[in-house]
Structures are given as structure tokens and as C-alpha cells.
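U., I forgot to send this yesterday:
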Amino acid sequence: MRKADRIYVAGHRGMVGSAVCRVLERGGYGNVVTRTHAELDLLDPAAVRAFYAAERPDVAVIAAARVGGIGANSAANARFLYENELIALNTVWGAAEAGVRRLLFLGSTCIYPRLAPQPIPESALLTSALEKTNEGYALAKISGLKLCEFLRRERGLCYHSLMPTNLYGPGDSYDLVGGHVLPTMIRKFEEARQRGDASVPLWGTGTPLREFLHVDDLAEACLFVLNLADPPDLLNVGSGEEVSIRDLAEKVRAATGCLATIDWDATKPDGTPRKLCDTSRIRALGWAPRISLDEGLRRTVACYRAECAARTVRLGR
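Result:
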């Protein structure tokens, strides 16, 4: 990728897209193209085609998606499939038709089977059944990465994909109903601390194991693979470390300074019992994360408090 390239970042206002824009700016890539949802509806194929025809980007980073936690996904698999499928197909196919030279598609390790081998290698894709609570989102992301793979094979376009593990960091959504586990915990513990609550309710048993990656590390990984001459079609991106949801809750409680006890609601779903991705392929190419979970939590709690003070925090969708 050249410094003068015209780079389109889809989803630039989201946590991932904004982190990608920051790392591009720090790297001296000054020709970044963005559009808000009001300016460009990625669900509209005609609008996406017109955008690509008018702007003619050299590179596209597809970070746009409808995202949410286990509650939001399980309650609306149809919507998560429909909207994310359209976003993936419109942005990737539209880029190919417009002659975009290079494209990086971002998904999630939820594309892998519920009972995939651990750590999960890229080769586990489509080997057995998906986790039902987020099956719609996973299917849409699988379609996007497969479209990139087919276009590369058939047209010689350097279209490739990254599948990050659970992400967190500045610009996250702290939606208590539809949010992801870590930002939801941060908000719950911080609000409990402020109110002086005696306890904090959390979903599930706390036993599932999860891996977390700071979004700034993901953004660095994006820039890294975009500068590879011949990247693999699919690469996992993660910290390589896992933590139980119970231990994560204790870490978040400590990071916020909350003194409340934790009430686990075992009637709520846990989701996939374990999800640790195998990142040996991207590490062998030369990338590694830099931000530990403890340091990342400290930074993210500070960002959440600053966003609350500035009234820029995302509390819902």
C-alpha cells in the first residue's frame, strides 16, 4: 500500500473504523475517504456503486457492520444476517466492479464452529455447526470473506480478510441491552460505583473462556497486513491469552474501583464455552499485540469516563 493511495474506510465512526483511521493518520496515509450512514447507506447497492464510481478509491477497509452482544444477536439473528450480508456483499462486490485494487474485510472469530478445536485455526472454518446465538452475524461474515476469496481467485484482486477476537477500547458502545460483554461490564461497574450499589447483576455462570484484543492492536494489524505483498486470504487476530468471564468481571471491577459484589444469573445464556483463536500465522509474518488486558482495561475505563464527561459516549444503538 502506498502513502498516496486513496483509502476508503467503511464504518469510520465505529470503534474499529475509527481506530483504523487513527493508525492510518499516524502512518502518514493522508488520503482517507469516509462517509457517514446519512451520506451513504451501505445496505443500498446502487448507492454503494455510485460512491465507488465517484470516489475511485485504491484501497478499501470494510469495518462497517451491525454488531452487538449475545443478547442482541440471539434476539435478532434475522436482522444481523440480513444487514451484515448486504453490507458485506455491497461493499466487496462494489469495490471489485469499480476496480478497487486492494480490499481488507474485517469479520470476527464468531465465524468458527461452536465446538471448534482450541486454539481455533483458520482451517476450522465451516467444519461443523456454528454457535446458534450469533449464527446470523457469523453467516454474513463468512459470505463476505468467501466473496473476497473467490474474487481473488477469479480476478486476481488482492482482497483478503482479518478475523479479530473480542475487541474493546475507545469508541465502543456501552449499550446495557445489546452491547458486548466487556463494555457492558465497564458501564455496569462504573454506574454501580457512582451509585454505591451493593451488587452488580451479570449474565450467565461466568465460566466461559474468552480472548480480548484492544482495538488499537487490531488497527496496527490491519496496517501490517495491508502492507504485505501477498497476504493469506484469511488471518486470525488476537492476543493469544484467554480469561474466564468471571475473572474478567473481577478485573473490570478492580479497574473501575467498584466495591459491589457480583450476582451471576445462570438462567441467562453463556454462549460458546471457549473461544481462543490461533494467531500463529499472523505472528509468523511479524505482527504481535502490544497492549496487555490489564493495561487495556485501565485505558478503556479512562476513555469511558472521559467520553461520559464530554457527553460523547455511546450508550445505545
